[in-house]
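Meet the record:
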Amino acid sequence: MLKTSGIHHITAMVNDAQKNIDFYAGVLGLRLVKKTINFDRPEVYHLYFGTETGEPGPIITFFPWPKQLKGRIGTGQVGTTIYMIPVGSIEFWENRLRHFKVKFFTSVRFGERILTLYDPDGLELELVESGEGPINHWNFGGIKAEQAIKGFLGATFISARPHKTAEVLEDVLGLTCIGDEEGFLRFKSEAQLGNTVNIKLTPSVRGLMGAGTVHHIAWRAKDGEELLEWRELLQSKGYYPTEVRDRSYFKAVYFHEGGGILFEIATDPPGFTVDEPRNELGEKLLLPSWLESKREELEEALPSLKVRVLEGDQ
């Protein structure tokens, strides 16, 4: 049976590109690993944030577009993106969020102490201490390796039909159900990062796509050959996957699972170092070959962006 090792990336919608960078790089300390454009809407940036190595797994990406309407988190969406932080670092993060006036609250689920917070567009995030996963040695601002976000723990799904979502996680993607608690089902994969999915079982409002919501979640495929196997499996299960699409840094297929959430399966190769070296990731605008002839026009239209240490860290 095919099994995904875990999450490849999560993609969300936001309004302001510079605010997005200031929060995810400046406050959370993630590395901007790729600055490119939305291949379907080249007038819009596509920003990728991850850890030191820029490998798939911890990657969150954004389509920042000032004109899009505010979305609403609800059914048919990834409701919460969950990050791993090192054991013993939660007090550091509480103090850091207070310092930057980011509102948060704490709770406990599945025995884990959770910090819940919201980004400037309203996207819901959680920080959870975990001994799993490698240390992230990317130091930025006031964040050192002993506090740095390691990558995804996983995500919480708000499904229109939770049993259908559970079915695709178990019977198609190969995750294992490991428990339920207070209205959540929990599933886990074999990966070190991005290995945990919660399905919320209590009713919710219908989700509306827009700023402050997740557009889709992508699962890892080993390579292009395995991706074709995934596509064949999805077709046999009646999920109507798209054709294989080339996203420069990975190839992917997309499908909607039975609870309304848009899933993607994406290959690990060629990866984010295919067009710039690891020590220069995210420093310049990268364009696919078919848009290079329009570089000057696109650079004029896109707003100027800067990864900067925030005033409170200087």
